[in-house]
């Protein structure tokens, strides 16, 4: 990959953002991260003279006015997550939609010739899909998180159409892997299960455990982000990023307990939460495969094992 010049990553101290920073920094002249650390951590980021971390909310206009004119690429990852959104709709709307809208407006006025604006959306826009595997032209909005993320997708397309801002949208499906901190109370089910298994605690399952998800390894997700960066065909497009394989939560729990080698395998079933609306998830990733030649490379068991090795190494260092 050729040099990307200067790069801005919003939410760059979070799980996906920090892994993107580690991968992209060698291809960049300089990487700027804007993150308020509400869920991210500075410890997740590499120590590099090519990295500047600004601990501010992404709607800090002084920061945006200073950084946006300097960058060639922007990856917009900062968001209020699914669990947070149901408890604070105002925060969800402001962070996921209005702050992103401000970012796009600043690009138009301060850096209209930016090379790419890449937005990480979510497979949550499909909710409980009637069509499996689910393609990009389907949607079923049932939660505030999905509503705000889906709305901002549309603004990305509007700014691409009216102002020629080269936007690309990736709908990520249940990313997991090294870098997902269990100290974050909003971490995903894989990180939660590993933490419980390694501490000898029962794994919490909301519902009956037969609900499925399309788990995608973090390295494969980062590879998709990098491909959209350098491929002109990706401009103006929306892509699913997933494996196309369903895994039920009970199977996931059993696999993690086998990897950790817990003495007694046990789970605890809990009442479904208001956010637990998806019974089955299976993503259709044919579009990104056809356009960008991307395909998930990491089988679930391999990804889980690599996650476990990372957690073990991290535990030794603490």
UniProtKB/TrEMBL annotation:
<dbReference type="Pfam" id="PF01370">
    <property type="entry name" value="Epimerase"/>
</dbReference>
<dbReference type="InterPro" id="IPR001509">
    <property type="entry name" value="Epimerase_deHydtase"/>
</dbReference>
<feature type="domain" description="NAD-dependent epimerase/dehydratase">
    <location>
        <begin position="7"/>
        <end position="242"/>
    </location>
</feature>
<comment type="similarity">
    <text>Belongs to the NAD(P)-dependent epimerase/dehydratase family.</text>
</comment>
<dbReference type="InterPro" id="IPR036291">
    <property type="entry name" value="NAD(P)-bd_dom_sf"/>
</dbReference>
<protein>
    <submittedName>
        <fullName>UDP-glucose 4-epimerase</fullName>
    </submittedName>
</protein>
């Amino acid at each position: 990959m050729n040099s990307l010049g200067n790069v801005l990553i919003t939410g760059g101290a979070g799980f996906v953002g920090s892994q993107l920073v580690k991968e992209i920094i060698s291809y960049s002249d300089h990487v700027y991260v804007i993150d308020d650390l509400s869920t991210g951590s500075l410890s997740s980021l590499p120590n590099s003279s090519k990295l500047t971390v600004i601990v501010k909310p992404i709607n800090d206009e002084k920061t945006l006015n200073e950084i946006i004119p300097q960058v060639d690429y922007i990856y917009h990852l900062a968001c209020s997550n699914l669990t947070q959104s149901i408890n604070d709709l105002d925060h969800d709307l402001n962070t996921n939609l209005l702050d992103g809208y401000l970012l796009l407006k600043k690009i138009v006025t301060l850096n209209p010739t930016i090379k790419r604006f890449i937005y990480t959306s979510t497979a949550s826009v499909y909710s409980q899909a009637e069509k499996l595997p689910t393609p990009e032209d389907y949607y079923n909005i049932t939660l505030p998180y999905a509503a705000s993320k889906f709305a901002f997708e549309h603004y990305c397309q509007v700014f691409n159409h009216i102002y020629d801002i080269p936007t690309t949208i990736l709908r990520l499906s249940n990313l997991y892997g090294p870098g997902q901190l269990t100290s974050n109370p909003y971490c995903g089910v894989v990180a939660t299960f590993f933490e419980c298994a390694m501490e000898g605690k029962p794994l919490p399952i909301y519902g009956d455990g037969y609900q499925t998800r399309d788990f995608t390894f973090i390295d494969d997700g980062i590879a998709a982000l990098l491909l959209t960066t350098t491929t002109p065909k990706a401009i103006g497009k929306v892509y699913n990023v997933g494996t196309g394989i369903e895994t039920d939560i009970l199977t996931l729990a059993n696999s993690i307990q086998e990897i950790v080698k817990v003495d007694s395998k046990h789970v605890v079933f809990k009442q479904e939460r208001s956010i637990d609306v998806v019974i089955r998830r299976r993503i259709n990733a044919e579009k990104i495969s056809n356009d960008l030649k991307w395909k998930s490379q990491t089988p679930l068991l391999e990804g889980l094992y690599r996650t476990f090795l990372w957690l073990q190494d991290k535990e030794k260092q603490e």
